[in-house]
Amino acid sequence: MGRITARRALTKITAGSTPLRRIDTLAVEEPLEIRVAGAPLVVTMRTPGNDVELAAGFLVSEGVIARGDQFRSAIHCGGPGLGGTENQYNVLDIALAEGVAPPSSEVTRNFYTTSSCGLCGTASIEAVQKVSSYDVGADPVAVDAATVATFPDQLRAKQAVFEKTGGLHAAGLFDVESGELLVLREDVGRHNAVDKVVGWALLNDRLPLRGTALQVSGRTSFELVQKAVMAGIPILSAVSAPSSLAVELADTAGLTLLGFVRGASMNVYTRPERIRVDAPDTDAWQPAAPTTPEQKASIT
Predict the structure, then answer these.
(1) Which residues are catalytic?
(2) What's the pTM?
(3) Digit-coded pLDDT (tens) for 11-64
(4) Considering 119, 145, 175, which residue would you say is the last residue of a domain?
(5) Torsions phi, psi for 12 (to 5 deg)
(6) Are residues 85 and 146 in the same domain?
(7) Could you tell me if residue 281 is inside a domain?
């Protein structure tokens, strides 16, 4: 796995048993500085690999570019490595196509972006909510619930680095008509994994990603919904919970947001009509009956 994984010694302790020394495989986490035309844009902690896709996807998410022909080239250049040594793979300089405006001062961030939280430090929703070039709400896509139910297992089966380390998030893009997994990317950061998928799509001239679903391995934040909307992805599915702000943005944008997709069940938070159900009572999507005084008061 090269720079993607690292081997370290550890002590395995089990109550009532003799401690054991063993070698463990860890997911590598290193900084990547993304520059545009030589000017620093952002530093993110990521798992090395697919760095060009990561940078391209980040630029799509930030509204800097929206088409493959707006991205000209990328080159790794020298930057700091561990222990102060030079590492030519931790700085990536992006060249945009002629006539494409460079990132504005609002996009350029003078703070550290960690793998766990993404755009930490953003002061307001207005500062991070971008205007997408694509209308996901107008996408006529529909998919069988039984097909969506297969996405998490397909994703897990292809997570090669997670299998070795147990320490990476994954994002996979599916064609909803065929159920085919188009691309999968892993990273220590949820947002990085999604950016790599979006970057793959941009570099292969596949934006907007109409008729697709994005499956992620963890919870869904506002930022992940935003990235899906910016790439024109109409369906976002997760094995865990969404945040309230993620649901609000999905509802506003017209994105179908699913959570707790486990086994045959799933929670559909927005645009449920896109999820086809082969059952006798599919004609009526009924909200759950309120059970508490607070719930009853909220609908009166």
Answers:
(1) 117
(2) 0.84
(3) 887 888 898 998 988 888 899 999 999 999 999 999 999 999 999 999 999 999
(4) 119
(5) -90, 120
(6) no
(7) no
